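Hello, quick one for you while I still have it in my head. My current little project is about how a certain protein chain folds up. You're getting the sequence in one-letter code plus the fold written as tokens. Would you mind checking whether the tokens look sensible for this chain? Here's the protein in full, and shout if anything looks odd to you:
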Amino acid sequence: MQKFDFTNESDNRGFWEELIGRGVPRVSGRGGYYLLGIIVLIWLLTGIYIIGPGAQGVVRRFGKVVAATGPGIHYHLPWPIERVDKPKVMEVKRVEIGFRTIHPGPPARYRRVPKESLMLTGDENIVDCQMIVQYKIKDAVKYLFNVRDVEETLKDASEAALRQIVGDHTIDEVMVTARFKVEEKVRQVLQEIMDGYMAGVMIANVKLQEVSPPEEVRDAFDDVVRAKEDRNKFINQARGYYEDLIPKARGKAERLMREAEAYREERIKRAQGDAERFKQVLREYRKAESLTETRLYIETMEEILPGLQKYIIETDRGSGLLNILQLRQGKTAEGDGK
């Protein structure tokens, strides 16, 4: 076997001549140029690329980013000069905290990760908290080149943010009363962390999954939760009774006040009418005192003895005749005899 010294220019040239002479057929003349042109053309055509919907193209020239392209047909200098990365910027990705999906199903199967899910609340209770983080790419260049492993970094940051917010709330707030508030705060803190890393991601949603006490004390805690639910139910029932009773009582009080005001107005009007009538009688009395007294006497006797037939007997001294005046009118002669 012939040996070549590649540090020697003549030996290097001889190696290639020997290789061409043995394995590569010689192409002479115009055919060699045609073949070379076809190879160059094919190489140039490899620079055509297509960006699909929901994706973005990031063009790198010798490793340096030189352009970002949207959906459609584009061209870049072929490899190894330029290359294109095509991250799906509209795709909603997810990170699971406290559990892992073994099989999407149906039925879905999951595996718990207690190392991530067990944490301490603000009132020093241990809670088993599982969470899903959904995110999208908002800056493809930062997403590709600023952080080595975005998904792993996001998982660690999500766990840290969740532990921080859970530590600021009681176990009741995390499990029931302030669940949505905890989710929103975790999203805000996580977004701030990822923006600090310049990871180029947008946290779309944070959703707490199963939030429960540890398995060892779950039954006792469920009893406490049920007792609190019963308490809240009774409080709500009492409030409902209050809301039903108070308006009725207020309506009744308002009705009684209106009736009292109407009765007052009636009594005032009646008293005013009686006073006016008395004044009229007084004026008539002053005009003819004797006649008025007689009339009042007769009217009073009519009121006192309403069921009796009455007669007024007056003796006229001058004539000596007895005049009888029948007060009640409309009686027949037969009725009068009775």
